[in-house]
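Weekly puzzle thread! Below is a chain. First person to post its structure in C-alpha cell form gets bragging rights.
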Amino acid sequence: MHPDLSSHLHTEECNVAINLLKQCHNENRFLKYLGQCNEFDREMRKCLKKEYEDKRAKSRAKSDHMKQRLLNAEKQADN
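Winning reply:
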C-alpha cells in the first residue's frame, strides 16, 4: 500500500506520476483491473520510494549532526 497521495506531500516529479495514474484509472474504469495502468503505477511507486529514501537520508544526516553537537557541548562542559 502506498502513502497518502495528496499533492502537497510530494515532489512535483511524483505529483506528475500520481496524476498520470489517476488519469489512467479514470479513463480505463474496467481495464485498470486487467493491468492497463500498471506502468503508471510502477513509475509512481518508484518515485515515491526514491522520495522516501531521500527523506530518510536527510533525517539521518540531521540526526548525526545533532548527536555531534550534543557530544561537543558535553566535552565543552567537562572542561
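Puzzle host: Confirmed. Bonus trivia for everyone else. Residues 21 and 41 are 6 Å apart (CA to CA).
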